[in-house]
Amino acid sequence: MTLPSEPRIGIVLLSAVGDVVHALPVVNAIKRARPRARLTWLLQDAGAALLAGHPAIDEILLFRRKAGLAGLVQIARQLRDRPFDVVLDLQCYFKATLLTALCRSPVKIGLDPARAREFNWVVNNHHLPKRPTNHVQEHFLEFLDYLQIPREPLA
To answer: How far is CA 148 from CA 73, 109, 137, 143, in A?
Structure first.
């Protein structure tokens, strides 16, 4: 799949600071390949400070899960006003499923059903090719392959 020159991309990866760090090469590569891309990252509070001011990320939307229904309503309203060209569902767990479903996008890409857990794959209309389970960073980098964006060497 090829991205437009100025894509609006939603990144769904809600928590786990380590996973957020492992996903940074993905957003960096996207921004280098498509400098005019607009990247919006949906996450919970835990990783927000880490991403604040990151040059590849244009916007952070916080899902305040502990706020219960009020937090869900708040993020739903924010997502309603932000259509995306592509959503990358990097989270393979059910807790991201609802947020991915709320994203307005014709293309939602996630892991293949064999690797996605807790029925997370059902809201995605594009799936990465089935592969053996690898380290989480390798999963994330597969999204670049799917988008035909060159991987960058990891230091």
So the answer is: 35, 13, 17, 9
Q: pLDDT tens across 97-127, in order?
A: 889 999 999 999 998 888 877 777 788 899 9
Cα distances (angstroms) measured from residue 149 to each of 27, 62, 96, 99: 11, 27, 24, 25
Q: Read off the pTM.
A: 0.92
Please identify which residue in the block is written with the tokens 């060497």. Answer: 153
If 0-12 CB within 10 Å is exposed, 13-18 middle and 19+ buried, where does residue 74 land? middle
Task: Report all structural domains of the chain as residue ranges with CATH numbers, in order of start.
Answer: 8-146 (3.40.50.2000)
What amino acid occupies position 132? P
